Amino acid sequence: MNPIAVTRQEILSRFHPVDPKTHKGLQGHVLLIGGSYGKIGAISLSSKAALRTGCGLVTVFIPKCGYTVIQTANPEIMVLTDVEENCITNIDFSIKPQAIGIGPGMGLDFKTQKTFHSFLKVNQIPLVIDADALNSLSHNAASCYLLQAKTILTPHQKELERLIGNWSSEEEKLGKAIDFSLKFNVVLVLKGAPTIIVDGEKLYENTTGNAALATAGSGDVLTGIITSLLAQSYPAVDAAMIGVYLHGLCADLRDENSSTQSFIASDIIENLGKAFLSLGN
After folding, report:
1. Which residues are 58's β-sheet partners?
2. In this predicted model, what pLDDT tens digit does every residue of 104-119 receive, in sequence order?
3. Residue 245 near residue 238, CB atoms below 8 Å
4. Would you say residue 188 has pLDDT above 80?
5. What are phi and psi of 58, to 5 degrees?
6. How far apart are CA 248 and CA 13, in angstroms?
7. Paired sense of beta strands 202-206 and 196-199, if any
């Protein structure tokens, strides 16, 4: 159970530079589903991070209450709204994204959980599941059998505990995570210090990041980053590895005058340009 270190060299073996002749239609279309009354900021962060990570188009599906917020905060983002004002109750869209991220700020309203389960029954698009969508999975364990192969799940420690149960040691936690990954054929991103990526029996340990990432919205940004990479045709495990590496690198590359305490999730997004440049792109 020895993880492979996710180093710059490892990332460069998987990362591909942008074709200088590309256009937005070739760079992938991301759909991010989430938000609820009082939590539209989460999906705003995810969508901005997705664009900053290089996909060509980003659409969000949110409750009606978030329409003005998103259109004002992120004018580059396209917006679809639910029929309900304050929460998601009917996931319905006609666009054809290359990847979907679901969960940031979504809440756990019963109608939201019900429509999430219905969505999993029909979805065939590469998927990243985070936040309250993970908690909805925990509330209805049978939903895990609806996940398509190589769906990416990004739980923090408490969300992971709800998915796989308690553990008494790091070794037991990783063993249970491996079992879960094998059982449902999914990729797990175990957020923490360090973050561990689980792809069946293969483990990858990230080498970037610091305590500056322990801030509200950091996970929402990571969801946008990984979903963007998935939409750009990276295999699921590569999207997870590159996403986690870049996310951590953004904290490592923070301005020397920026303290750990003052670093916020928006700063991760602002540093994505530096992170890409460090990879030679």
Report:
1. 30
2. 999 999 999 999 999 9
3. no
4. yes
5. -135, 130
6. 18
7. antiparallel
